[in-house]
Amino acid sequence: MQPRNMSMSGVVDLAAVKAAQEAKAKAEQARAEAARTGGTGAVSPADLVIDVDEAGFDRDVLQRSTEVPVVIDFWAEWCEPCKQLSPVLERLAVEYNGRFLLAKIDVDANQMLMQQFGIQGIPAVFAVVAGQALPLFQGAAGEAQIRQTLDQLVQVAEQRFGLTGLTVDPDAEPGGAPAAGEAPAGPYDSLLEAAARALDGNDLDGAVQAYKNVLAEDPAHPEATLGLAQAELLRRVRDMDPQQVRTDAARDPGDVQAQIAAADLDLAGGHVEDAFGRLVDTVARTAGDDRETARVRLLELFDVVGADHPAVVTARRALARALF
Predict the structure, then answer these.
(1) Is 187 a catalytic residue?
(2) Is there a domain that residue 233 lies in?
(3) Catalytic: which of 6, 48, 82, 107?
(4) Which of 68, 186, 187, 284 is the most buried (most CB within 10 A)?
(5) Which of 118, 138, 161 is the last residue of a domain?
(6) 10-residue block means of pLDDT along the chain (324 residues)?
(7) Which residues contact 244 (CB under 8 A, 6 or more apart)?
């Protein structure tokens, strides 16, 4: 079976975006703490390949994924293709020199993890980045295809999640890999936690206000800016009739409010390019106040996804062409 390459550049859900921002913050804080204490945080090449079980999954995979992409190799002793694939992955983990961590999971001993990942057959390879699971490929694969997938993984992890990997020191003692710790408490943690609780309880008004409270003190706070944009989007689409919204938008492409509503639905459903393309087209075909209204909403939707997302970069160029 050929590997199923990731499609990370065009699929974004709101939870993943939030996790990306949190991962970036943790990575920056970890680097700052290492610099402050004079530590290098370096690991041995032997620490780049680890065995993981259900008891240590949260610590060894989920927590570590906030500092480095974790590639998971699901295998079993009786699986002949696994015996061919696993050594390749182990060798590449060392060759990539800390750009990803390889976690090996024996499915016979960890049936619950196999079920949680929805694995139907092995070998199966996943990645976890900032707590988000991404399928890489299932079955045997050639080394060239594996390298292509890993190259894409480490590129996305760095560009979108701010994860530059681990520092590797050949002279470091094996077993000295630092565990991912909790980020230092920030001055707005209680307000951000209140916003998160409000979102979990579907109290979108409360979440919006909590994020606004943070931004009143720190207008450039990245997590609050992102959270506010997400909460406001969810509040706008909460009471929409999706079928009616899409019917209205299809019936009159010149109706700016109809196109804005449809774009909100597109983005809330994870259809990033569709949402941006719809509003860029609306900007191109309108003028005056209508054009400005569409442009402003497009900029607001950029905030939901994050400025470094590839779709935002592309849409900004398209918007510039539509305006000028």
Answers:
(1) no
(2) no
(3) 82
(4) 68
(5) 161
(6) 31 48 55 50 85 89 88 95 94 94 94 86 91 84 91 86 83 64 58 81 88 88 84 91 94 94 91 93 94 94 81 90 87
(7) none
